[in-house]
Amino acid sequence: MKLLIAKDYEDMSKKAAQIIIDQVKQKPGSVLGLATGGTVIGTYKMLVDDHKRHRTSYKQVRTVNLDEYVGLHPSNKNSYHYFMKTHFFDHVDLPANQTFIPNGLADQVEEECKQYEQLIAQLGGIDLQLLGIGRNGHIGFNEPGNPFSSKTHCVTLTESTRLANARFFKSVDEVPTHAITMGISTIMKSKKILLLASGTKKAIILSRFFNEEVNEQNPATILKTHKHVTIIADEQALSLMN
Ligand code: F6R
């Protein structure tokens, strides 16, 4: 496990973007596992800036997103489809048919999960998975207690996660109760993992991450057993480290 200490959000985003750019330059047909949320917005912004300035190309890249809410149409501003389009896909040369996000509107959610897992395997697995971390240690939407053996599945979101995400909705009642997420075992199969954390709101969970043994009540701790994980955290996120 490698820890890169960033000065602040911008520095974290810059370091993260550089790792993704290096990956794409080294392997233009990379499969990138992508995340949504406030933490990664700056990283996408820097990837877009770099694409405009230096023409780093995503023409051969394939992307698979970690998760999507159940019941939100892709045109809904709070869907992760919409997030990815507005923050990244619409601004680079990545063909739309090479981007994959779980279908939160699928009639057969279980079948959708199975197919998503198969799709990742057919793409040859994920070369680099980008992750944020929830304040309760979730990665993707794998909430505390979720088995480490889980594959892509449908989850009931915890109240704390719905409250944390309510900032993007008109009220917490509008936050969906379910989501489709890659499982922990899906994430762990990625060849490389990049976990980002920024700000004081992530300080408690980061100190728990470093101090706790690997345990399912703190899902992110499993990453400590992955062979190629890089964590980029800023000074505020690391402020409770001892
Ligand atoms: C998003 C995702 C989540 C977020 C996490 C942190 O696709 O899977 O695990 O990475 O909730 O969210 P932010 O960055 O908004 O603090």
What's the short version?
This protein has helices spanning 9-26, 38-54, 80-87, 109-122, 159-165, 184-188, 203-211, and strands at 2-6, 31-34, 62-65, 67-69, 99-100, 128-131, 153-156, 178-181, 192-197, 229-234. The chain is of the alpha/beta class and 242 residues long.
CATH fold topology: Rossmann fold
Computed over alpha carbons, the radius of gyration is 17 Å
Strand content: 15-25%
CATH class: Alpha Beta
Q: What's the helix count?
A: 7
Cα(first) to Cα(last) distance is: 18 Å
Order of strands in the sheet with the most strands? 1-10-9-6-2-3-5
Fraction of residues in H or I helices: 25-40%
Number of DSSP strand runs: 10
List the keywords.
Rossmann fold; 242 residues; three-stranded antiparallel β-sheet; seven-stranded parallel β-sheet; 10 strands; globular; alpha/beta; binds fructose -6-phosphate
Secondary-structure map with pairings?
Blueprint: E1 2-6, H1 9-26, E2 31-34, H2 38-54, E3 62-65, E4 67-69, H3 80-87, E5 99-100, H4 109-122, E6 128-131, E7 153-156, H5 159-165, E8 178-181, H6 184-188, E9 192-197, H7 203-211, E10 229-234
Parallel strand pairs: 1-10, 2-3, 2-6, 3-5, 6-9, 9-10
Antiparallel strand pairs: 4-8, 7-8
Helix pairs in contact: 1-2
